[in-house]
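Section 5: illustrative case.
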């Protein structure tokens, strides 16, 4: 009986340690993710988009293809569309955005500058799903403006 009690006590202690370790790992991962997100937001707000000593940054052709696709979609979009069309626009822009990040081979400062230009688009895209028409229309204008920066700062 005494051996059974000791065995149960050891098992409970061991299980508790394992469970606590998993919880600590999850909390640490969550904290890193939140910190990384906050740091990225702060960096992108703090650092301004700039040229490479007066020249455009050279990026991979797939990035240019993706940005031009987004630019064409947003330019051709009819602002009088219903909310379903705005959702379709969101989906297509999001697909182009994912393509850019999947295919990106740009490195170094050019890569950092590209992120400064592209990062704000995520929030703008999300506003396309707003139930308020005014917010959706404003988002279209903001996306056009943001995408317009690409040709001024980047080339492939």
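Designed sequence:
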């Amino acid at each position: 009986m005494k051996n059974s009690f000791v065995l149960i006590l050891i098992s409970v202690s061991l299980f508790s340690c394992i469970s606590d370790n998993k919880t600590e790992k999850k909390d640490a991962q969550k904290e890193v993710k939140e910190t990384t997100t906050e740091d990225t937001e702060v960096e992108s707000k703090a650092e301004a988009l700039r040229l490479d000593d007066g020249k455009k940054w050279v990026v991979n052709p797939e990035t240019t293809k993706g940005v031009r696709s987004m630019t064409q979609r947003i330019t051709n979009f009819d602002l009088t569309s219903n909310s379903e069309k705005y959702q379709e626009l969101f989906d297509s822009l999001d697909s182009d955005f994912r393509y850019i990040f999947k295919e990106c081979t740009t490195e170094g400062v050019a890569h950092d500058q590209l992120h400064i230009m592209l990062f704000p688009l995520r929030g703008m895209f999300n506003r396309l799903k707003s139930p308020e028409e005014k917010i959706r229309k404003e988002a279209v204008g903001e996306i056009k403006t943001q995408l317009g920066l690409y040709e001024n700062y980047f080339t492939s």
